[in-house]
């Protein structure tokens, strides 16, 4: 079977990495790149840098990656759906719920794959964490906690930390927990002099009863990417910056210290760090997209899932504004 002909729209900070991974992924052939701003990072190679999505479609593509700013997603995606082109857009799905809904409906009506680039789902540590949880490794799951903290990224100008960073955690937490959000309560701050929020703390519950908590900001002078899932047998801790996964087991030895023994909880047990094959998550994401197009896999993040995440993100912002918990 011939390779899928792929075009990449937007070859800036994120798009350049998509270009590299399309070129290196078996079964994909990069045939077109487009960016009205030109080839800032010099990744086009022998390809002409096209000016817009229409010219990319005219190049005869089977699939597209959209890595332009979020406000431009809907225009490009609707044109690609109309042309029958399988499409993966970078997260978040769209700038508004109305735009996201239009995109979902357009791709479902066209019968082509519409995906969203939530690359954390392809992180080796989280893939293994989810597999273990699904197999009952933790027993009953009690809570999912995420921490995503770092200094401010100068490249972000059109959204706040909720839509840029927290969207990752909302998606991965629901995926790991195997449930949709039931409610969310959030608080935000504006400390860097911008119109958008730069810090959020959020807590909620999934429909299956699992608790969830998110701590996300651009005000921390170090980078942290942690996901902790606590269950009846212990806790799994994923450091997605390093793709490390560690299990902290509940203690099995009797506690002989009376003051601690009086506490009816768990004690500290053995610690195990998993040995993982660490592949680049973006490469795995492209393979999932390819397999979905070929009908041999369903591990991609669908646009409908991306729309569910958008509902939660908007719920966070509404909660922060009103001071009230939002129910879904």
Automatic annotation (TrEMBL):
- Please indicate which superkingdom the organism of origin belongs to: Bacteria
Residue ranges constituting the Gfo/Idh/MocA-like oxidoreductase N-terminal domain according to the UniProt record: 4-118
**Database matches in InterPro entries:** Gfo/Idh/MocA-like_OxRdtase_N, Gfo/Idh/MocA_Oxidoreductases, GFO_IDH_MocA-like_dom, NAD(P)-bd_dom_sf
- Which taxonomic lineage is given here? Bacteria, Bacillati, Actinomycetota, Actinomycetes, Actinomycetales
GO MF term (any one): nucleotide binding
Tell me what this protein is called. Answer: Oxidoreductase, NAD-binding domain protein
Q: In this protein, which residues make up the domain named GFO/IDH/MocA-like oxidoreductase?
A: 127-236
């Amino acid at each position: 079977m011939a390779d899928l002909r792929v075009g990449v729209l937007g070859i800036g900070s994120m798009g350049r990495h998509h270009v590299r991974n399309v070129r290196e992924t078996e079964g994909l052939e990069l045939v077109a790149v487009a960016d009205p701003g030109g080839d800032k990072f010099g990744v086009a190679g022998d390809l002409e840098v096209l000016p817009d999505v229409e010219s990319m479609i005219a190049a005869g593509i089977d699939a597209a990656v959209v890595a332009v700013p979020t406000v431009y997603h809907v225009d490009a995606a609707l044109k690609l759906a109309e042309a029958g082109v399988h499409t993966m857009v970078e997260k978040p799905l769209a700038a508004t719920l109305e735009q996201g809904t239009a995109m979902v409906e357009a791709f479902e009506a066209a019968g082509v794959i519409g995906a969203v680039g939530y690359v954390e789902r392809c992180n080796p540590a989280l893939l293994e964490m989810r597999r273990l949880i699904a197999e009952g490794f933790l027993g009953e799951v009690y809570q999912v906690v995420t921490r995503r903290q770092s200094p401010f990224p100068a490249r972000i100008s059109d959204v706040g930390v909720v839509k840029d960073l927290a969207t990752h955690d909302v998606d991965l937490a629901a995926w790991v927990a195997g449930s949709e959000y039931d409610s969310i309560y959030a608080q935000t701050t504006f400390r860097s002099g911008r119109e958008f929020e730069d810090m959020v703390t959020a807590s909620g519950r999934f429909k299956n009863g699992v608790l969830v908590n998110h701590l996300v900001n651009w005000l921390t002078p170090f980078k942290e990417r942690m996901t902790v899932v606590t269950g009846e047998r212990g806790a799994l801790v994923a450091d997605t910056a390093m793709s490390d996964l560690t299990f902290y087991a509940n203690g099995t030895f009797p506690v002989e210290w009376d003051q601690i023994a009086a506490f009816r909880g768990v004690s500290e047990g053995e610690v195990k760090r998993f040995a993982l094959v660490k592949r680049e998550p973006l490469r795995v994401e492209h393979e999932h997209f390819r397999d979905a197009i070929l009908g041999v896999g369903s591990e991609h993040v669908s646009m409908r899932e991306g729309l569910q995440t958008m509902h939660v993100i908007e719920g966070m912002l509404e909660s922060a504004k009103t001071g009230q918990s939002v129910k879904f």
